[in-house]
Amino acid sequence: MDWLLATPQLYSAFSSLGCLEGDTYVVNPNALAILEEINYKLTYEDQTLRTFRRAIGFGQNVRSDLIPLLENAKDDA
């Protein structure tokens, strides 16, 4: 399962959503487009292996990137 964690596309997609600066999570102004790209990858991934979903789970990207994004996003979109 190490190959799942080594996918640079996964890290670049989630790391470009925003970053933690001190105690504040700064949301990337382009986060909506990045989320749409992630949604596209989830929609069109291999339906048997589900490698992108597994990589998200093993990389704990929901906890480390998506939850802080949702907590700190100010825009309704």
From TrEMBL:
Occurrences of domain Timeless N-terminal (ranges): 24-75
Transcription regulation is among the record's keywords: no
Keyword Nucleus: yes
Keywords: Nucleus
Main location: nucleus
Superkingdom to which the source organism belongs: Eukaryota
Pfam families tied to this protein: TIMELESS
GO CC annotation terms, alphabetical: nucleus
Annotated InterPro entries: Timeless, Timeless_N
Compartments where located: Nucleus
Protein name, entry field: Timeless protein
Species, as recorded: Drosophila melanogaster
